[in-house]
Write a structure and sequence with these properties.
The structure holds two protein chains of two kinds. Chain A contains no helices and ten strands. By secondary structure, chain A is an all-beta fold. In chain B, the strands form two sheets. In chain B, strands 2, 4, 5, 9, 10 and 11 form a six-stranded mixed sheet that branches. A five-stranded antiparallel sheet of chain B has the order 1-3-8-7-6, with no helix packed on it. The chains are: A mainly beta, B mainly beta. The A-B interface holds A 31, 33, 35, 41-43, 45, 48, 50, 56, 58-59, 91, 93, 98-107 and B 31-32, 34, 42-46, 49, 87, 91, 95-103.
């Protein structure tokens, strides 16, 4: 497809379980962002990848959160030992490079029960 | 001071009205500016980039004022379909992130 693809679209998990969220960026986009949006709130930056450079992890809220990206392809965001406050929509975006507009996937709605 | 600040609204306007939003940013070295719109329970979508010279796209006009560190969005002849949250986005020099404001909600009524 032409856009950013995220999976799953919805995920319900039990507190304490690990979850893995996936993002397929637009082909050729070197920059990839992960954001979190809690209900009724703004977008919260989590992590940024640019090509093969070291990722900017400054937004990760705790060491339970981690993300990987191989080259300029798929990225996975992993949340270990999920807590109820992790419930949110996790949005992935990609752009051609750092200063250009970013395009978002439809997000993964995570619910921790 | 927050990096990117917006009036949360909501702005309630009738169809056909002209409405304007402002957004202020704190980092004078910011390089790139954008407006996104976000519909309820949907992902943000790019509305327009904001250039130093200002730019217009149909009913939408964006302006950048570097001296006062704000950007604006003007919507003319509002449509019901313009109802959404408008997000101001800034990319800061030396930082890799796109920083989002919390958004301004617009409600256009018949």
């Amino acid at each position: 497809g032409a856009g950013v693809s995220q999976s799953p679209s919805n995920k319900v998990t039990e507190k304490g379980k690990d979850v893995e969220l996936r993002c397929d960026p637009i082909s050729g986009h070197t920059a990839l962002y992960w954001y979190r949006q809690r209900l009724g709130q703004g977008l919260e930056f989590l992590i940024y990848f640019q090509g093969n450079s070291a990722p900017d992890k400054s937004g990760l809220p705790s060491d339970r959160f981690s993300a990987e990206r191989t080259g300029e392809s798929v990225s996975t965001l992993t949340i270990q030992r999920t807590q109820q406050e992790d419930s949110a929509v996790y949005l992935c975006a990609s752009s051609t490079h750092m200063n250009t507009e970013a395009f978002f996937g439809q997000g993964t709605r995570l619910t921790v029960v | 001071r927050k990096e990117v600040e917006q009036d949360p609204g909501p702005f309630n306007v009738p169809e056909g009205a002209t409405v304007a939003f402002n957004c202020t940013y704190s980092n004078s070295a910011s390089q790139s500016f954008f407006w996104y719109r976000q519909d309820c329970r949907k992902e943000p979508k790019l509305l327009m980039s904001v250039y130093s010279s200002g730019n217009e796209d149909g009913r939408f006009t964006a302006q950048l004022n570097r001296a006062s560190q704000y950007i604006s969005l003007l919507i003319r002849d509002s449509k019901l379909s313009d109802s959404a949250t408008y997000l101001c986005v800034v990319n800061n020099s030396g930082y890799s992130t796109l920083t989002f404001g919390k958004g301004t909600m617009l409600l256009v009524s018949p």
